[in-house]
Amino acid sequence: MYGGGADDRGRMVPPDNHVHSQWSWDALAGSMERTCARAVELGLPAVAFTEHADFAPWTLPPQFVPPEWQGFFSDGVLTPPPLDVAGYLECLERCQVRHPGLRIISGVELSEPHWYPAEATRLLESTGLERVLASVHSAPTADGRGFTEVSDRYEDQAPGEVVRAYLAEIGRLIERFPRFEILAHIDYPVRSWPAGAKPYDPHDFEDEYRHVLRMLAGAGKTLELSTKVPLHPEILTWWRQEGGRTITFASDAHHPDALAHGFREAARVASAAGFRAGRDPLEFWRCA
Ligand SMILES: [Zn+2]
Ligand SMILES: [Zn+2]
Q: Could you read off the pLDDT of 179-236 as tens digits, one per residue?
């Protein structure tokens, strides 16, 4: 049996189902070893290392590229390196031996797998990674000749357009790539919402959110409750109303200190929206 599951006051802490370590190309300050030690300290029952598998090259203005990404950047294009699955799994096994009371779940965060179905399928079939998240991080560039990070689209698109285009892309992902378990950060563009714009309000996009949530529920998938920029509680209510049954908690930590950040508040929000922990702390939370 895996122990833990309760914090020092005896309250349940849900597993963190979306964490990055040094095996993700953009988490160079990450550490699987220190994240596991932190998980034990926090009393988490489980942690899933869902490292990035990014396939789309990004056309980026050089000023958007931090020094630590220079190794992957040339001629205005950032090409994310492939995930070193063998090194990652070896590290994960070592951590599991060191922390037998913590369930360490292997996983991957697939970016735009519907654009690269052969690559994504090959990765899943050759590795058997457990927790499979699907994400959209990219958008076509303004000239339609390449791809870029979603936040870059605020340069030439109205904020509302960026969100609508993002949700439409999520819809295409759900339609075209069924081999995933959890949809990550449905509100990702909100993380880079422009200062000075009319404040983000999910109600401005209620129809679009509901449409995607209905598709996701129909496909039998799970919605992630991200705490990086906390998911608006209303979206959980819509998820339930549109037939969604399960949720996971996700810090999307790229550093050990961010593990399970905001989970206590997120658990309160999820409970208020009608979701409950299962008897087994490793289970996804479900509608009561
Ligand atoms: Zn992501
Ligand atoms: Zn992530």
A: 999 999 999 999 999 999 999 999 999 999 999 999 999 999 999 999 999 999 999 9
Q: What is the mean pLDDT of the chain?
A: 94
- Given the structure tokens 């959110």, which residue do they identify? 209
Ligand closest to 186 (CA) is 1
The lowest-confidence range among 1-5, 76-80, 142-146 is 1-5
The boundaries of the domain holding residue 31 are 16-287
Query: Is 190 part of any domain?
Result: yes
Report the predicted TM-score, pTM, of the whole model to 2 decimal places. Answer: 0.95
Three-state secondary structure call for residue 31:
coil
| Dihedral Cα 23, 24, 30, 33, nearest 10 deg | -30
Compute the distance between CA of residue 23 and CA of residue 19 in angstroms, rounded to an integer. Answer: 11
Proximal ligand: closest to the CA of 134? 1
Is residue 1, in this structure, part of any structural domain at all?
Answer: no
Q: Where are the alpha helices (DSSP H) in 62-205?
A: 85-98, 117-127, 159-176
Least Cα distance to 277 among 238, 249, 258, 241 occurs for 249
- Split at pLDDT 50, 70, 90, the class of 3 is very low
Q: Residue 8 C-alpha to ligand 1 middle, in angstroms?
A: 30
Report how far ligand 2's centroid is from the alpha carbon of 93 (Å).
21
Distance 266 CA to ligand 2 centre (A): 17
5 CA to middle of ligand 1, Å?
25
Measured in Å, residue 173 CA sits from the centre of ligand 2 at 17
CATH code of the domain containing 35: 3.20.20.140
Number of domains in the chain: 1
Residue type, 207: D
Q: Which residue has the higher pLDDT, 64 or 129?
A: 129
End-to-end alpha carbon distance in the chain: 25
